[in-house]
Specification:
It is a single chain. By secondary structure, this protein is of the alpha+beta class. About 25% of the residues lie in helices and about 40% in strands. It contains 4 helices and 6 strands, in the order αβαββββααβ. Strand 2 and strand 3 form a beta hairpin. The chain is globular.
């Protein structure tokens, strides 16, 4: 009877743990900072090595070679993967929480790259053609990603 109680406790504990899928280097969820903290480390092209957490808004539909995330301050950040060394799912990740580790920087993304991202995201020709200005944005090169199911 005692063993049954322990088995039941273990079963309940394992059911309450969310699934975590790892991509790239295996990372943990320790020392995650807010995007506001990360932004304070980044000025005029400086880079910061940090871990961030946010909601996945979109992933590259073609290869899973990038994703966009909504950060705790409501802003979006574009995430690519170091040396094109790993990918995330091409669909089904939207709305899930991700923890990313790597390097972030604020920079200007040129029109050609923005149009390429829009094409990868399955945007219409009209939406792609409407991209005519470069965009200053926060970009992140991840060495590891956790997606929480």
């Amino acid at each position: 009877m005692k063993n049954l109680g322990i088995l039941l406790l273990v079963a309940v504990a394992s059911c309450s743990q969310p699934n975590q899928n790892y991509y790239g280097e295996k990372i943990d969820n320790n020392e995650v900072v807010s995007i506001s903290q990360a932004k304070s480390l980044i000025d005029n092209g400086k880079k910061a090595n940090v871990k961030l957490e946010g909601e996945i808004l979109a992933t590259c539909e073609k290869k899973g070679c990038w994703m966009t995330m909504k950060m705790d301050d409501g802003e979006e950040i574009r995430v690519t993967f170091k040396d094109y060394g790993f990918f995330v799912p091409t669909s089904g990740a939207e709305g899930k929480i991700a923890i990313i580790a790597g390097e972030t920087v604020k920079e200007i993304t040129d029109v050609e790259t923005l149009q390429h991202y829009a094409q990868d995201a399955g945007k219409s020709e009209a939406e792609i053609a409407a991209i005519t200005e470069p965009k200053e944005e926060y970009n992140f090169v991840a060495t590891g990603v956790i997606i929480v199911d």
